[in-house]
Amino acid sequence: MIQLLRLSVLVPALLLCTAPPASAKRKSDSDISQEVKEVRKVWQEQDDTFNSTLKKAYGYAIFPEVGKGGFIVGASHGAGEVYKKGKLIGRAKMTQTTVGAQVGGQTYAEVILFQNKKALERFKEGRFEGSAAATAVGGKKGAAAASKYKDGVLIMVLPLKGAMAEAAGGGQKFAFEPL
Q: In the chain, fewer beta carbons within 10 Å around the N or the C end?
């Protein structure tokens, strides 16, 4: 048990030491906007109901590239754009920390749809925490249209690259910045 505890402290410290500086990871708003456009196109190509599902939502947030990695302790981070009735209203950052049985690394896109004003306001005010489990996995034909909202929110992910095995718990936290 003590060795497991040591590993759970040592591995994140090693990951921090080998990670590039935070400034090297930062993307400009225009880079993120371009990535949002690209991931929307890829998502629509794989699921022809994706864009129509976005149009029906009161609002949505698109995180075009979320990086996730872990070994016992894991972390995720991504930046994206937030829309209300199809119009860009701000930017958002997502972070997640998980603890449990996990190993690997992956990159995925994430879309959070808000069914109504109340759900979007919760997100904007920082009172929203996403579940680690998505409501739907994107890239499957008709998946967006078949997905169901839970408490006014629908979360979809589109795996991009990598693989991760995990049985870990943790919630996503979001920070919204209006335009």
A: N
